[in-house]
Structures are given as C-alpha cells and as structure tokens.
Amino acid sequence: MALGTEDRLAVLELIALHGHLVDDGELHRLDELFTDDLVYDVTSLGHGSLVGVDAFRDAALAMGAHNPVGHHVTNIVLTDLGDGRVSARSKGIGINADGTSGSVTYEDTVVRGEQGWRIARRKVIARRTPLSAS
Q1: Which of 110, 102, 98 is nearest to 126 (CA)?
Q2: In this structure, what are the phi and psi dihedrals at residue 91, rounded to the nearest 5 degrees?
C-alpha cells in the first residue's frame, strides 16, 4: 500500500518540527520527533553517531552558543519503504549567530509507532563541494 496523503503530511510536518523545537530550545519535547533508540549520525560534521534522545539532548546542550540559531529544511522527498517505514531525504540550511551558513543533506528513516511518526535514524551529510554526491 502506498503512503497515503495523511501520513505523507504527518511525516513532512515531523521533519519541519525539528527546526522549531531545536531552535526554540524545547529539548524536553524531543520525544515528539525521535524514537527512544534514535541513531543521529553526525560523523560528517566530526561528531560520530549519537544514540538515543538523551545523547542528542546532551550534545545540543554541550554545544551551547555554538548551535545554529536557525535550522531550515527544504526539498523533502519521501519514499514509502513499507511496514510503517519511510525514507526521507531533505536539504538542511543552518544559520549561525554570526550570519554564516552551512548546507547539509538529511537522510532519515521515519517509523510509525504508537505515538505516530518519529525519526528513528538521521544521517547528516555536510555539503562542502558543489556538484557532488557528498
């Protein structure tokens, strides 16, 4: 069965919610975004993989003022993987307090559970070279 419109919209809103919660410092609401066993791979940014919501929260707090002030997501493409799983590929733009910016690609696995759709795995790939796959 193909991913229906209602589920597609729920996944799109989930991906968009990430930037709002993180930028607003609402880290106590991360369970609205992620599964408990989240794997958040920021190896491309030099930080390895964070496993679990607490690890993500701790890393964000440790970064403190070095966190971007704005996480923006665009160009979201969803692929239904079946069995309540969706692959989501999107572009992220981070705006820093000093006005500099960076671009990443998000590769997500989103799963449907008792609480609705949640990101189970996110790989963040830094975009540093034009016209390249990485």
Answers
A1: 102
A2: -105, 135
